[in-house]
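[Q] Does anyone have a clean structure-token version of this?
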Amino acid sequence: VELFESGAIVLHLATKSEALSPSDPAGRAKATAWVLAALNSVEPFAQMVIHIVGMFGDDAKSKEGRAKVEGLLNLRLTALSASLGEKPYLEDRFTVGDLMMTAVLRELVDSGVLARFPNLDAHRARCEARPAFARAMEAQMKTFRENAPG
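[A] Here you go.
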């Protein structure tokens, strides 16, 4: 199967590995829901916060726009933080939902936004420290390095 969207790719891989998704229908549905939450509820606002000043400058109107979008992102991160609580993972164990949420949350490290949510930052760090995550990131970055413009 040849796929092109990260969410579709990880969900496809999850069907092939119980390490990424529980085999029971309820567990699989919850893991899928977290993948979609990462991509549809958190990432769009994260991307806007990260890029709004860079795209539109640092004037008052851009700062006002960023503040509004950051407020919306904070609402989503607050809900995510409450859902995670002090658990190590979003559900009873690591799933593809944690994988995708980590990919989104790591985008917020440099902006300083994630530092306001210590449990989310700890979740991100815990997931990034998994050996399989490091291997996957290295494989992805290798492709970028090999195909970098001359």
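[Q] Thanks! Anything notable?
[A] The mean pLDDT is 91.
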